[in-house]
Amino acid sequence: LAVYAGLVYTSHICRWRLSKVPSKSKVVWEKFSHQSKFQRKLYHYGTFPQDFNWGVSSSAYQIEGAWNADGKGASVWDTFSQKPGSIPANANGDVACDSYYRLDEDLYMLRALRVKSYRFSLSWSRIFPDGRRTSLNQKGVDYYNRLIDGLLAHNITPMVTLYHWDLPQALHNLGGWANVEMIDIFNDFCDFCFATFGDRVKFWMTFNQPYTIAWSGYGLGEIPPNIKNPATAPYTVAHNLIKAHATAYHTYDDKYRKSQGGLVSIALSADWFEPKDVNVPREVVAADRALQFQLGWFAHPIFKNGDYPDAMKWQVGNKSELQRLSESRLPSFTEEEKSFIRGTADMFCVNHYTTKIARHATLSTAIDKQRAVAWGLRRLLNWIKEEYGDPEIYITENGVATDSKTTWDDPARVFYYKTYIDEALKAYDIDGVKVKGYIATSLMDSFEWLNGYKVGFGLHHVDFTNPNRPRTPKYSAHFYYQVIKDNGFPIPDDDKMLYGHFRKDFIWSVSTAAYQVTIEGGWRADGKGLSIWDTFAHTPLRVFDDDTGDIACDSYNKIQEDVAMLKQLKVTHYRFSISWPRVLPDGTTNHINNAGLNYYQRLIDALLAVNIQPHVTLYHWDLPQALQDVGGWENETIIARFTDYADIIFSHLGPKVKFWITINEPFRPGTLPYIVAHNLIKAHAEVWHLYNDKYRATQKGVISMTINSDWSEPRNPYKQEDYDAARLIEYIQIFNFNISRLPEFSPEEIKRIKGTYDYFGFNHYTTILSPIFLVFLNFIVDLNRGVGTIADRTWLDSGSAWLKVSPFGFRRILNFIKEEYGNPPIIITENGISERGSVDLNDIQRSYYYEKYINQLLKGIKCQWATGFAERFGLFYVNRSDPNLPRVAKASVANYSTIITCNGFPDPALEPHECLNTEPEGKLQSCLAICLFVCVFVARKQPKKKYFIETITLEKKM
Questions:
Q1: Which domain holds residue 659?
Q2: N or C: which end of the chain has fewer CB atoms below 10 A?
Q3: For the segment 871-892, what is each residue's pLDDT rounded down to a tens digit?
Q4: Domain count of the chain?
Q5: What pTM did the predictor assign?
Q6: Quick one: 536 exposed, middle or buried, by C-beta within 10 A (0-12, 13-18, 19+)?
Q7: CATH code, domain carrying 671
């Protein structure tokens, strides 16, 4: 209050008494604005009550056309839009969707959607051509009778708006809404409509968005009647609109309610306003003030006390004082008028589209570009609940525009509805807000006011270039139909928990990589050679804050500490990679670095001493720089070099290692990816045969390659191209893959490569939506991706832009591998979620990720599990500000300790499982680890092959 009062220039000039500012509804910001992104975006499954009102909307001028047919009079929108230059491409509503003549087609669309309600408006000038009863046009009345009867014949409730901006031009000529006489004139129109249609219409709205009428029509002059007088006209017009609404309400209450039993309200508009900084009181005040000026301007008198909000009275009154005006520019209601206005609504109807940031003293009231900020709807509904005494609320408009080029394929609109309706569900199901109905905007593309036909809000596409105005359902229409059918979002089978256990020999593991996650450090210690990542990380501008892997987690010097953590985790296996240049400094057998070999021998011995099996990756991207200098993987001689290197490792470490990976993720974007992939595959095959022929009999291990892949869902399941593209088996044929770009294997090479695996090593993180997802599970080929992939906006984010939490895809891709590759044994060698920003040891999002993904794995019970991760995917935080690099457990450790101890998910409906009673051995008890440490630097996956490093940030699979 003190901050707010500080805006007063001198206390003696303010005649306006302040109430509590901001309003008591500030509790909404206190409750929601401190939510984490995870809490804010977590999707909520559930359903609305059985009597929930699902509908769609339209308005007369936007769809009817027939602007002067059958005796209709001109409206202010007819006059405005017919003036050249008013609307882009000189568009107008003369024909629009031609609904006046195509009523049956509109009714067909409504029946197909299975909506319960249809919100439409009456054209005042179609019923009263000059705005008065004496000019009654019976043909206009007949049209609306046919519409209403057609709706009721199919059990669709008419929701009628009496005024949606199209004032008869004749009434504007008398001064329009600035003329106080309009109150009685409008009441007479309403009286006629109640009497004529009220026997069948039980849901009335007097005005649509009076704020827009007053401010955009009479203040900014943007829409008809295009009066630009922001100083006084909006306040006068709003004053008349409020009294006109109250008068019409009382007319219905006094004359028709008893016999007709209907409801009357007013459709108000409201963005949500989020403070620029919720911790700064004056910014919360600014957000509250913005809501009071937009929504409270009309809601406060009608739903609260018959008068304007105190914040509004103070602001306008104080400025009027400063302008030396004799009275405030904001008119006053008499006590009698306050009593007359207060309570003149039977439900709270609100139109909502977007959210804005409120800044103290700089708030703009102009309508900016609409942005999809779904969580703002939940907060707005809660604010209405708190501010206006928990009324029943109908969301009478909500939707998003797409440009005219978007016809029936509109996934952006689907995402919008999916997120916004879910926020309404949260408000109802979690917060107890009385949300009674949801009206999608709009039934079909139509004349979109100042935008003409450049954009469309419709669930159905209308071809305005065709005189027959054909309607075509969009993807969003199919989606909305399903939402209505399901009455919300019942939890899908994919997301239902499966209770049970993995088999007893199930592998639980953690994973690291020499340069990246284990990040040994000791980058030049004891004779180690340079790798390409050493060179890259030491190149100027490649890293932030000079981060390199020189020390990293210093695992090279901390074997005992790392093994102690593994022991506490109670994992059965540990996947790590060997640094090729640590063993062979120049990549060849010319010089073997025994110190490097000794390090890995000591590590393996330490693991085996505590019954942890080593799972060793020979190559995890850290190619010796000396080999890169002679062409790297583009030079075919590297196949022999890699085989020689593997031979050294097998001979020295193989007697104690039973699980091998030749190459981690051979698909990486490169200069010549096809040649590189060709050589990688042949190198893998040669090493597999080396192990099979020379070492398997005595060492008795298994060896394979680790492949990576996301799962792909069709972006639009009703679009055959997207559906086919998501079927990974057929991608080559579907997209006319240029096979000439691939080198060919000879028949002998094919024979040697085929079958060179003992298990299917698989890295998986996320799911994508794309019409051109290209994946080949033997190796993945980058086709320069002509169309980018997208993600469902309802999927939770992570610290990596590419990684969205989508557990259902995990099970689906495992089933795909099973069906496509003959049900091979599978080891999941990487899976996890990243985080970004300040370190939070209470990493609830990681716990959520593990639980959901591992449960999907349980549903595909025949797979084996070992996992690892990159970009700060860690269960443990490494404090690099401490020279000792201590490891600190995060909260997700406890969650995964339980999963490993229980070997799955015991059913809570049964007796408590004995695994839940196990006394933990400390905070670092066993858990399924996506990675052991949070370390320092990674190559970040970026478009156009741009890579860079971030402080204490590990990106995907470096």
A1: 500-945
A2: N
A3: 456 666 666 566 666 666 677 7
A4: 2
A5: 0.86
A6: middle
A7: 3.20.20.80
